[in-house]
Amino acid sequence: MSNLVFNFKSKKIKKIKNPKFILGGKGANLAQMGKLGLPVPPGFTISTGVCEIFYKNNKKLNLKLIKSIKQELKQIEKECGKKFGDLENPLLVSVRSGARVSMPGMMDTILNLGLNDDTVKALAKKTSNMRFAKDSYRRFIQMYSNVVLGVESYNFEELIENYKLTKGVLLDTDLDENDWDGLIKDFKNVVKEKTKKQFPQDVYEQLFGAISAVFLSWESNRAKVYRKLNQIPSAWGTAVNVQSMVFGNMGNDCATGVVFTRNPSNGKNEIYGEYLINAQGEDVVAGTRTPNYITKKANKDSNSKGKSMEEAMPKVYVQLKKILKLLEKFYKDMQDVEFTVENSKLWMLQTRSGKRTAKSAVKIAVDMVKEKLITKKEAVLRVDPNTLDTLLHPTLDETKEVKTIAKGLPASPGATSGKVVFSSDEAERLNGMMQDTILVRVETSPEDIHGMHAAKGILTARGGMTSHAAVVARGMGRPCVSGSSEIDINYEQKIFRTSSNVEVKEGDVITIDGSTGRVILDKVPTLKPEISGDFSKLMSWADSYRKLKVRTNSETPLDTKTAREFGAEGIGLCRTEHMFFDEDRILSVREMILSKTIEDRNKALAKLLPHQKNDFIQIFEIMSGLPVTVRLLDPPLHEFLPKNDKEIGDLSSVTGLSDNEIKSRTEELHEHNPMLGHRGCRLGISFPEIYEMQCRAIFEALVECKKKKLKSTMPEIMIPLVSTEAEIKIMKDLVIRVAKKVQDENNTKISFLVGTMIELPRAAIKAKDIAKHAEFFSFGTNDLTQTTFGISRDDSGKFLNDYIENKIFDIDPFVSIDEGVGDLIEIATLKGRKQNKKIKLGICGEHGGDPKSINFCSKTGLNYVSCSPYRVPVARLAAAQAELKK
Ligand code: ADP
Ligand code: MG
Ligand code: MG
């Protein structure tokens, strides 16, 4: 047991290789801060391993453990000169959870433990502060009853609110000792009524109850949801920290606060945080009182009327500032710090690396390299590629006239629009119907995680920049405006009203701008973001480390331009069928499909040729000098056919076919299982003239670009859905035949490659044969995943959650490459290279923009990944990280 409970100062901690693993993040950092000589209230950590023991022991603490906890508590009593449950100088403790990675707000903390009807009197006498003692006791009853006894907190809050109403005051701080005394009685009655037992007076019963509750909270619903969203294994368990209390609620020379060593929204190297005088624990983040800023500057920047800590407590502020500097230097990262001031003495209660927006993550990483705190490699590894997405996301089009109806805090950047909803469940429901929502709440709590995830943006009426809503939204990359005191929400009527008297109902569309804090009526157009200098710098470092090339999936000039600006090194997938849907050509496509003779078909194809050629010219121009993989027609033909009477009528007038003839031909083309039907190269085998037209368009475009003296593009002609050697051979011959013709006609030489998509298990297994004729393989992992599992991506939504819940899938295989699909890719890579050493290998499924899958591609030794334009920077960074982690 001696290895299960550790005093913060224990020498044994030094010998632990990975302290966070054993002590949890909070415990390890509390011990570390102590070691650095910082003021940390004495305490001990019950290690993460005990969590498992607890669950194995029928969710009970065993006797040995109880004994060593009591022993450690003795030690704390000694260090503090107080005694637990003592009637003269009682020791009070907090019981705090602390997993290996921080799960903000996910687990429950209990403060002021050790108070009962007797010790509260002793505390009052000892501190000569009756109000403080009573305030602490009522807080303890609230927290303990909620977390350990399961009495919902609104029971207590309602009592307080009603009491304040009768007394005619606004804030908790307006209540005096007699008020709290009365409320304590009421609280205890509530507990008695709800639990049929008295509130526990035995301090050890309190302590062991609280410790058990922390372990139990590891399996609470909100903890489970958070773990699922953040891929934290449930086997890790949580540690428990028991720490002697310090008090921020003893009067006006006391305070509690949260502070970041740098600005978490924009990354500026200035401390940024909030605090509250005469308050305790979660008051700052809970949003019950609106906190004040730590620095004068932040106060000024936001025109706040409150007094900054810098002004109100100048000495403590200077000390805090020094400590923050030291912590950052030690951890070499931006820290998120919690502190309390008790009678003008500063105490450090937590430090961890701070959550930040993508913008600030990039700035901080680059700045820290400049400050010589970290290396370039470390900087590249610091930024989570997935979060870059938010940097590339739209901002409001400022040239448009907008109707700003309220303002709040710019808690998480990005602009977004959606229908107003007032509950997380409604956000989730509408999300299921593909509708965009803005979740509007007075404040959010961990119960709202699913709604925050489902909503496009979050708006709260209360809470600061470090409130639950703000922290979680930043972590998720959701735009958020918090603490908008200008809105008044009525949950019952499902409306909110602004101070300028605008009424917004559920379902009305609003826009929030998390970068400026504006709330705007209606949908507002947004603009493509501009890429900062820090961002380019970080990307250029990333590029210098990565080996994988990054291409894009694109078929329109606009997307292609965007992708090139984002650093795409070519196109990995240009889907030609998308080019068929344009208004000016769909009729010719339909005509081509319905034609009964080759002559008719060729006539229709001839109409399409100039359009396709033009598309390719534009794309080749933008990608000049880079490779462009063009996939020949892939989807089943019936997808292009007319869907309604008007379309049928239009087609009839062009082709001369009757409506009925068109309908019957459409029926003939209908397939029971089109995904596995007449598509891909199977079309090329049946209707070679379609592929011939496409190849001609590509080659003629190339000749055209040559005439314009553009740097030449290397087209890579990709045959879809190949499963046999014969298919690729026949198709390759076709491509070469057309190329020869175009060369002869123009008297010029054309260079190109012919290859195939690997998207069928047979193709992967027989890769050696296919590689005899293919100069490149591009793994089409969307279809490869579908065909490997035999699961349709479009229908999997209905049951995928059951599969994740039952731990059959860790993660959606359409998001991150599955192991089995990965094995097929490895087999094809090995066999393909064995046959053809020079074969080019890439991936063009959705997975090409997923950092985990990119890591796999890097390990497997592919040459490139290809992803959607906005994922290109994500992929560049992920590819660099994959290389650095090798
Ligand atoms: P979380 O993991 O949600 O951040 P914490 O364990 O950090 O929860 O506790 C929340 C808050 O409770 C802390 O920020 C701090 O203000 C307060 N707190 C915790 N332990 C103590 C203590 N020993 N003395 C004073 N305040 C404490
Ligand atoms: Mg904390
Ligand atoms: Mg495919």
What layout of secondary structure does this protein have?
Layout: E1 5-7, H1 19-35, E2 43-46, H2 49-56, H3 63-80, E3 83-84, E4 90-91, E5 93-99, E6 110-113, H4 119-127, H5 130-147, H6 154-167, H7 177-195, H8 203-217, H9 221-230, E7 238-244, E8 255-260, E9 272-277, H10 283-286, E10 292-293, H11 296-301, H12 309-312, H13 314-331, E11 335-342, E12 345-353, H14 358-370, H15 376-382, H16 385-391, E13 395-396, E14 404-407, E15 409-412, E16 415-421, H17 424-432, E17 437-441, H18 449-454, E18 457-460, H19 468-476, E19 480-482, E20 487-490, E21 495-498, E22 503-505, E23 509-513, E24 518-521, E25 526-527, H20 533-545, E26 549-553, H21 557-565, E27 571-575, H22 583-594, H23 598-622, E28 627-631, H24 645-655, H25 659-669, H26 681-686, H27 688-707, E29 714-719, H28 725-746, E30 753-758, H29 761-765, H30 767-770, E31 776-779, H31 781-789, H32 797-805, H33 819-835, E32 840-843, H34 851-860, E33 864-867, H35 872-885
Bound molecules: adenosine-5'-diphosphate and magnesium ion (2 copies).
Beta fraction of the residues? 15-25%
CATH topology of the largest domain: TIM Barrel
Oligomer: single chain
Number of domains: 4
Please state the average pLDDT score: 92
Radius of gyration: 32 Å
- Tally the helices: what do you get? 35
CATH architecture of the largest domain: Alpha-Beta Barrel
Largest sheet: 8 strands, mixed
Strand order of the largest sheet: 14-24-23-16-17-18-19-15
Give the N-terminus to C-terminus distance in angstroms: 38 Å
> What structural category do the secondary elements indicate?
alpha/beta
User: Which compounds are bound in this model?
Assistant: adenosine-5'-diphosphate, magnesium ion
The CATH C-level name of the largest domain is: Alpha Beta
Helix-residue proportion: 40-55%
Tally of strands? 33
* Poorly predicted ranges: none
